[in-house]
Amino acid sequence: MSLVTLVDVLEKAEGGKYAVGAFNCNNMEIVKSIAEAAEKENAPVIIQASQGAINYAGLNYITALVKTAAEEVDIPIVLHLDHGTDLDQIVRCIRYGFTSVMIDGSKLPFEENISLTRKVVEIAKAVGVSVEAELGRIGGTEDDIHVSEKDALFTDPDEASVFVKETGVDALAVAIGTAHGQYKGEPKLDFERLEKIARKVSCPLVLHGSSGVSDESIRKAIKLGIRKVNIDTNIRESFVGTIREFLNAHPNEIDPRKVLAPAQRKATEVIREKIRIFGSSGMA
User: Fold this and answer.
1) Is 0.70 surpassed by the pTM of this model?
2) Structurally, how many domains does the chain consist of?
3) If we measure between CA atoms, which residue out of 122, 127, 148 comes closest to residue 137?
4) pLDDT exceeds 60 at position 92
């Protein structure tokens, strides 16, 4: 089926009180893993590309791969820009057919974040594209975006209310204790803060940095209002880890298809498991 918007899948998730998985892609194999996992689970899915993924694979390749995947399966797929910080690139993604974009102005002062986000919302909504924004700064590293532990700031519930009203965003990523990349220990999420934000904000909430967060914590966050859960590191770990295992066992193998196929299957398994945890299986 054709690509759908973030609003399309999150409105249904809000009604059903589940979350939609948002999985980062960097190449053909991972795009196929995400689409196959979602099809097998009969679940809506968000395939997202970061600025780093676009720089690596090329905007035209990423778009073509995801559009092809959407045509091959009969489930709702969103093509989403993850952590967009450059307005020109956001516009390019919209022109190439992304159905959802994220503007990450979280490093900016509050009023500047509002101003930039409002500008992106005006551009995107004019052509039916959804917009996610971020308030508060989520620690860790994702591609070329790094936020140190001392600079990470939790989302203020009152500011979140003002931000959503002033910008009209379709989804808000909140900082409640998660981090991008691999965790050194188990993260402790501020569920009380999440509950306050959910009471004050009208749009669906997004949890970034969810790889490494316990299944129990993910389920509790969804119960309290999270409707989009981002997963990247877990996919990379399973994909690259399987490649290492295969090459250790077959050091003379030079056929990339034989090397990558087991990695793709493993990534599909990991993504299917996440979809079940999010409660979106059977919701396509």
Assistant:
1) yes
2) 1
3) 148
4) yes
The predicted model gives 250-261 an average pLDDT of 98
Pairing of β 100-103 and β 77-84 = parallel
Beta strand pairing status for 171-174 and 130-135? parallel
Using CA atoms, how far apart are residues 136 and 134, in angstroms rounded to an integer? 7
Residues 6+ apart with CB under 8 A from 190: 154, 176, 177
Residue 7: left if φ>0, alpha if ψ -120 to 50, beta else—which one?
Answer: alpha
Tens of pLDDT, residues 170-229: 999 999 988 755 545 567 899 999 999 999 999 999 999 888 899 999 999 999 999 999
* Residue 141: predicted pLDDT: 45
Helix or strand or coil: residue 258?
helix
The answer to whether residue 284 sits within a structural domain is: no
Give all strands (DSSP E) within the chain, no chain letters: 20-24, 45-50, 77-84, 100-103, 130-135, 139-142, 145-147, 171-174, 179-180, 205-207, 226-231
Domain-located, residue 185: yes
Q: Is residue 1 part of a domain?
A: no
Compute the distance between CA of residue 88 and CA of residue 163 in angstroms, rounded to an integer. Answer: 23
Please provide the DSSP assignment of 147-167 as one string. Answer: E-GGG-BPPPHHHHHHHHHHH
Q: Which residues are catalytic?
A: 82
4: DSSP letter: B
In a domain, 10, yes or no: yes
pLDDT tens for 6-42 read 999 999 999 999 999 999 999 999 999 999 999 999 9
What is the average pLDDT value for the chain, to the nearest integer?
93
Distance CA 155, CA 171 (A): 14
Q: In CATH, what number is assigned to the domain containing residue 67?
A: 3.20.20.70
Give the domain range for residue 185: 6-278
